[in-house]
Each structure stands twice: as C-alpha cells, then as structure tokens.
Amino acid sequence: MNQQDLISTTAAIDPVFMLIFGICLVLLLGITVVMIAFVVRYHRSRSPQPTSQSDGNVWLETIWIVLPTLLVLAMFWYGWKEYLVLRTVPKGALAVTATARMWSWEFRYANGKTSSKLYVPVGKPVRVELVSKDVIHGFFVPAFRVKRDVVPGMSNYAWFVATNPGSYDLFCSQYCGIQHSAMVTTVEAVPEVQFTAWLNQSSSGAVGGKLDGRKLATEKGCLGCHSLDGTRKVGPTFKGLFGSKVEVMHDGKMLNIIADDAYLKESIRQPGAKIVEDYPPIMPANADLTDEQVTALIEFIKSVK
Ligand SMILES: [Cu+2]
Fold first, then answer.
1. How remote is the CA of residue 222 from the centroid of ligand 1, in Å?
2. Which domain holds residue 108?
3. Which partner for 230 in 150, 203, 220, 239 could form a disulfide, CB atoms 3.0-4.6 Å apart?
4. What pTM does this model have?
5. What pLDDT digit, counting tens, does each position of 226-283 carry?
C-alpha cells in the first residue's frame, strides 16, 4: 500500500460519525416537531371528543418498518466497513509496544529505546502493541479516533497514522485507580528525518553517559505516586526519604528501619517486601530496570531533600 492509498483512521471514522450523527439529528428533529404539532393539534380544547378511529394503514406501516430497517442496516454496513480499517494495519507500519501500568505509559521501539511520549514519524502508519502490567487500561488518542482496551494477559493492538506534525493527547480511557488521571502523555508526530535521529539517540535517561535519575523517575511513572515536595500521594514522598526512619510491615511484623541504599534498592526491586505503614501494597515490581537504573533512581531519591 503506498502513501496515496493510505487512509488515516481519522479519515475513516469521521464520515461514519457524521452519518450516524446526521441520521440521529434528523430523527430527533422530526420526532420532536411531529410530537409538538400533535400536542397542539389534538389538545383537549380543540378536540374534546375523539374525532376519528383508524384501524391501520398498510402503506404507513410498510414505510415505518422498511425505512428504519434500511437506515439501521446502512449505519451498520458503513460502520463495519470503517471498523475494518481500524483493525487492518497497513503494511510496513512502525512497530511500537505501549506498556500501561498504574499509572504511566512506556513506549518501546524495535531497537530497545524507550520513551514516556509516543514519538512517531509523520505520514507513516504506526502499529501499537498494547500491554498491561497490572489492571485494565485504555489506549485513547482522540485526534486519531483510536481507543482500545489494554487488558492484562491479552494481546491487543491499535494503529494510526499522523498526517500532520504536532503534539496529540494520549489518555488512559479506563478508570484504573486513584491516579488514573495522571496517565496522560502525548503522541509527538515529527518529520521522519527528525524521528530517525531521535530514535538513534542513546536511550532515554542518559545524559553524557550518566543516567539521569530524575528523568528516569518521571519516565517510569514513579512520580505519579511519590511526590517530591512532601505531599502525601499513593506512595510515600521522596522528600527527605533517604536516611529517615521508616515504619514498615515485613512478614506481618512491624519494623523500624532506616531508609538506606539497601532498603531503597529492595523497595524498587520487590516493593512488596517491606510496606511502609499506612500505605497500600500496590506498587508493581520493577524487574526490567537495570542495576545502573536502580542506582540512578536511588541517587535521585537521595538528592530530594
Ligand atoms: Cu490506566
């Protein structure tokens, strides 16, 4: 399929929406006008007694059976046709894996690069593999009319093509917990040359060969639950955490410990091992982080005073 034949998801969906919306609008107006006319025309003051009785009208009945049937079939046929466009990924689409977790998105490209924003080249179809690490999320990009559930254990996908450069909202469309509204990011559609250059830059989080812990914490979604200013969020704040005394539950026993390197490392790798008193045990494990990344995160936590 070459570029000229490529129909965007937006171009496929909008006419269907307008058709169904148009039919609904005509019916709404038609029914409302007739209803009001009848209320006035047959008001008790005008016709105190029933003036006529009708036993039926074959033509009228035929019309009100056949016409709605055709309308509904037309909506179905047209909707189905364009739905197939949504489900048929054009050949040569760029493959990206979107991983949803409570409460952030991570996009992974074929070369292993990861990003918290979905960078795509303009004019090139993108196939997004949808993966959930925990609960049901929803991949929703209104600008491209694409919305698909992201279900743990189920393989699902969506595709779209950005026909114009720009920044487009990307939401989670399923209520997935108290920080659900924090699952917002963007699709960044950039010219292909720029995209290729970005893709071949060293992976995110690296600054001059050294990993940037703050950037990593943002990208991995840590800051969705852990504040930097002492505010209580879903998890304990990072502010002043390092070196502080923490009350934790460990194997059903309450322990008083000092938040040192070993504790932070364990809490990043196996969050369930020691749960800070009064917080829910819901942080996902981070098996995919490298040791360098964990160290960078700890260094960052140390710096938040
Ligand atoms: Cu979500």
1. 14
2. 94-199
3. 239
4. 0.73
5. 888 888 888 899 988 998 888 888 888 888 888 998 899 889 988 888 889 888 888 8
Report the CATH number at residue 116.
2.60.40.420
Choose the weakest-confidence range: 25-39, 101-115, 254-268, 277-291. 277-291
How far, in Å, CA of 239 to CA of 121, rounded? 38
CA of 145 to the centre of ligand 1 (A): 18
Task: Compute, in angstroms, the gap from residue 104 CA to the centroid of ligand 1.
Answer: 7
Query: Binning pLDDT at 50, 70 and 90, where does residue 129 land?
Result: very high
pLDDT for 209: 55
Q: How many domains does the chain have?
A: 3
The string of DSSP codes covering the chain is --TTT---HHHHHHHHHHHHHHHHHHHHHHHHHHHHHHHHHT-TTT-SS--------HHHHHHHHHHHHHHHHHHHHHHHHHHHHHH-PPTTPEEEEEEEETTEEEEEETTS-EESSEEEETTS-EEEEEEESSS-EEEEEGGGTEEEEE-TT--EEEEE--SS-EEEEEEE-S--STTGGG--EEEEEE-HHHHHHHHTSPPTTEETTEE-HHHHHHHTTGGGTS-SSS---SS--STT-TT-EEEEEETTEEEEEE--HHHHHHHHH-TTSSEETTS-S-PPP-TT--HHHHHHHHHHHHH--
Do residues 214 and 294 both lie within one domain? yes
Q: How far is the CA of 204 from the centre of ligand 1 (A)?
A: 22
CA of 182 to the centre of ligand 1 (A): 8
At residue 204, does pLDDT exceed 70? no
pLDDT digits (tens, 9 = 90+) for 33-70: 999 999 998 888 887 887 777 888 999 999 999 999 99
